[in-house]
Amino acid sequence: MDLREYLRVFRAHWLGMVAITIAGVVVAFGWTLLQPKVFTADATAIVQTKSTAGSEPSLSDAMIGNSIATAKVKTYKDLGEMRSVAERVIKELGLNTSPEQLVGQITISNAVDTVSLKVSANAPSPEGARDLAEAWVKSMVLEVNDFETKDPNKQGAAFLSPVDSARLPSSPSSPNTRLALALGGLLGLALAVAYGLLRYTLDRRIRSVEAVERETGVAVVGTIPEEKTFTADDRLVPFDGGNSSLSANAHLFGIAEAMRELRTNIQYMDVDNPPRIMVVTSPLPGDGKSTISSNLAITLASSGQPVVLIDGDLRRPMIDTIFDMPKGAGISDVLAGRASITDVAQRFGNGKLLVVGAGKVPPNPSEVLGSARMRELLQMIAREAIVIVDAPPLIPVTDAAVLAHSADGAIIVGTVGKTTYEVLGKALGNLERAGARALGIVLNRVPRRGSGAAYYGYQYHGEYYRRDDETLPSGDAKALTRNRRDSGSA
Asked: Which of 136, 244, 252, 489 fits 470 for a cystine, CB–CB 3.0-4.6 Å?
């Protein structure tokens, strides 16, 4: 993964990642509320000798005394952590605890190259911490005296002297709320990153052009943005392409431009021998292959090329609904010999587009579509026009693979955020086993906002190529001039 992929992971899952990070901070804060408050007070004592305790000791006496104090300080530190000191403190303060527990509340430290001992006492209240620290230092003094002279009230050659009494702590030392929140935030952030990477790894839905081409080895020839205004009965781009800013279909400019890009990619796919017969299919139902095939036919026809759109989905035909055609004779009737192609074709838009419905649904669609008569019909039409066949999905039935074998190739439509790489790979495998060629993959319903829009470039689509006048008819393809073929005119 490179930096762009990490950014894409964050953009795709930023809400969950931010929520996990915040949850880490909240959990840490809740933990601090559940922990008992502990206050810490410090008292200090130093090791002295009688040679240094006088008013004006000589230099030699001072050096000797300092050497003795330095040698004694570690011993006195160990004495201060003994149970006997805790017993003296319990007796003095009247505490109801064991010496072992009380020793656990005390920390004695000795700074390097010093003869001072700092006693840190922990207690549930500020007063308790202060009193415990002072009482502990006093008990240490008695313990040291007892160690040196066998008399707690008599100082030896070296003794312990309190120098700094304990102060009342103003705030608890534990729990450390700031530290806990920082650690909670870091832990939450680590979990958030792990969550995002795990989602990225387990999410096998198609998200980007690069990933699709890397996983399948097939070029992506088009990316079609999501269009919220499309309905089951109204999903066609206008023949004017929404180029006029005054057109009623100006909002469809983005998807019309994407269809024009798809048209260009197909035309230049093989300059010497561009495809004339194309099957448009998808791995599974619901990917929008009928919408893509219909709009691709309109886009090709709007450039002045004769186009014949055939509804090859003899199981769930949709072309007649999309173009608002009366249900009647269609391609199945032509193949059965009950009608000719000119009898069933209907002309739309600028006159360059002929649409052929599915007709009567036969009991054996695969055999009908794979027949020699179907291949001959496609070849005959391809001499005069570009043929686009809207075929059933590849995985549920074999119709599309059979049709693609008789065509120049198939265009596979997948849905961004829905179609998985495994499903797409299985669809391509069905094509390959049928000896058919995959012309390319079209990614449908690409998001216009968020990380997807930035990646596919749809945030740049604006008014640059639009005219300010309205020189072409407005309205969608259904509202444009539709001349149903008179007998023999198709």
From this structure: 244
